[in-house]
DNA sequence: GAGCACTGC
C-alpha cells in the first residue's frame, strides 16, 4: 500500500483498513468497491501487521481471561481480531463477539469494512448497534460492533452480558467516561463469569496500569482458575504501519503559539517539499484568526504564498465547509488545515505530510463545589503529542513541528491526560451505576477514581431530584424511570413530571431540542438577521417555549430545508430533533408515560421544567444595572447569555438549563418563573437551603 | 451584546 504520487496526478487508493484507529476516512473519490474481489481482500488482510500475530492472539485469548493489546495506528487490530476470533469458533453456539468503540461513526465504518471483508451483508453475520440504530439479528449476528455507551445500557437488561463470549474494548487509551465505567464493570462481570474473555486494546503503553487493574487472583492464591485459565492479563504489542515522522522542536519557548503557528506554516511552504499541512490549535476563535492571517498572505498573487489553500476545521462548521476540507488539493496548491482536536481522533485527513502542534487543547474541567464545568486551554499530554505527530506519517514519511521545547516535552509534559471521569459532572454515571445495582459508589473499583467531592455532589443532586432515597437507593418508580431514559437525569425528571402535569408532548420536544447543540445556525457577523428572525419565534416565557414555536413552524413547513434557511435555523439539527423526539416518545411510552398536550398552557410547561431544574434558579440582583443575577443555590454571580430571547428582558426570577463559563458565567436557555413555583416544585430543597423564606 | 474541545446513551 505504500504508494507515492505526484501532486496533480490521481491519488493512490486507500481504504478504511488504513485507518481504523484514527477514526473515519473521508474519500475524495468514491472507493472502488466493485473492484475488490474476495481474493484481493484476503491478500490485503494478510498484509496487515496484526496478521503475524494471529496465532499468538488466539493462543492468548484461549488461555488468559484478559489480553491487553497495544497497537499503533494502522495495525489492523480493530477489523481483524474479531474475524480471527470468529474463525477460531468463539461465535459458535449462538454466542457473540463484541467490539466496542467510543464513537458512532467508527462503529459504522468498521462494521461495514468487516462485513465487506467477510463478504456478508451488514446487519446479518456482522452487525452494529448505536443509539437509535440496531443493525443486528438475534441468532444470526456473530460479530457485533457497538459504542461502549450502548454496551453499558445493555447491562441494564443483562447484567452479566451473557450472550457475549469475547468483548474487545477498543481505544481504551482515550479513557472516556463510558470506557472507564465499562472496564470497571467488566472486571466485576469476569469474577462471576470467568469464561468471559476480555481484549483491551490501547494505543499507548498504559498497558501496565491496565494490567494491574485486571490482575485478579483466586482466593487460594493460585494464578489460574480450575480450568487452567490464567488470571494474569497478558500484554501483546503490535506494530503499526505508519511512516516515520521527523520531530522538530523550537529552540526557545514561544510566547504566542498562534503567531508562531502561522510563521511555521509560512516557513514550511517556503522550505519544504510538497504535502499538506495540519495545524493543531485550540478553538474556533483562534483558528479563524490564524486562517485570516494566512488567507491575507495567500491573497497576494505576487508572493509565492498564493499557493496556499487555507481552511479551518472544527465541529461547528457547516456541511459545505467540511466538504471543502476533504476535497482534493488543487494542482499546484498546498492545503493548510487549521484544526481543533477533532483531527486528533475523530477525523482523518488524507495527504497530510506536515503537522504543526501548538501543544495546547481545550479541555473540560469540573468544579464539584460550584457545580460548574469550564472549558480551559491546557497543555496536552505526551500521548496526544504522539498522536498528533502520527497524523503526518500516513501517506509517506513526514515532519512534525512542535511549538514547544524538547526540554519541556521530556521533563514537563505529562505522559497521559487526566481521564474524563476526573474532570466531569458525574450525575449520569452515578445513576447508571445505581441502576446496575452498584450500591457503594464510593467504593467502586475504578480504573482511576473520580474526586470524592464529585461523587458526593452527584449523590446530592440525585437525592434532591427524588431519584435516590435516604439510603441512596433508586426510588420507585421515578428513580428507575429516570435511569431508563438516556438523557441527563434533570431532563429525565422533567419528562416524568410532565406526565403528571399533562404536558408530555411539549416537554419531549423541549428535551429533544436541548439534546442537540443548537437549533440556530452559527452566524459570525450576521447576528442582526438572526436576532430579527428570532423575534418571530420569541416567547415572553423564555427560550424553551421559543423552541416549541420553532418546532411547530418546522413541522408546518413540511420539514422544509428552505424554511430553515430563511429562518436561520439549522436544518440538520432540526432533523435530529425530530428523530430524537420520536425515539424518546417510543421509550417513555414503554415506561407507562402517556403522551398528552397541555394545549399551549405555558405555565404548566414551565412547572414541568422546574421539576427537573429547580436547583438552577437565579434571582436578578436588585438595583443591578448590568443584568447581574445570583444563583439561589450558592449566590454565584451569573448573567443571561446574549443568545437568549430573555437577554435584556431580565425577568426578576429565572431558571436556566446550563451555565457556560467564559469571562463571565452565562446562563444558556432561560425561562422566567414565579418564585412561589420553586417551593411548590421542591419544598425539601428550598426549605433545606433557605430556612427563612423571607427572601420571597 | 457574546461564543461552543470532543464524544455518547
Automatic annotation (TrEMBL):
Domain Helicase C-terminal: 261-437
Domain Helicase ATP-binding as annotated: residue spans: 58-223
Gene3D superfamilies: 1.20.120.1080, P-loop containing nucleotide triphosphate hydrolases (3.40.50.300)
Name of one Pfam family that matches: WHD_HA2
Enzyme class: hydrolase
EC number: 3.6.4.13
GO MF assignments: ATP binding; hydrolase activity; RNA helicase activity
Sorted UniProt keywords: ATP-binding, Helicase, Hydrolase, Nucleotide-binding
InterPro entries associated with the record: DEAD-box_helicase_OB_fold, DEAD/DEAH_box_helicase_dom, DNA/RNA_helicase_DEAH_CS, HA2_WH, Helicase-assoc_dom, Helicase_ATP-bd, Helicase_C-like, P-loop_NTPase
Protein name as catalogued: RNA helicase
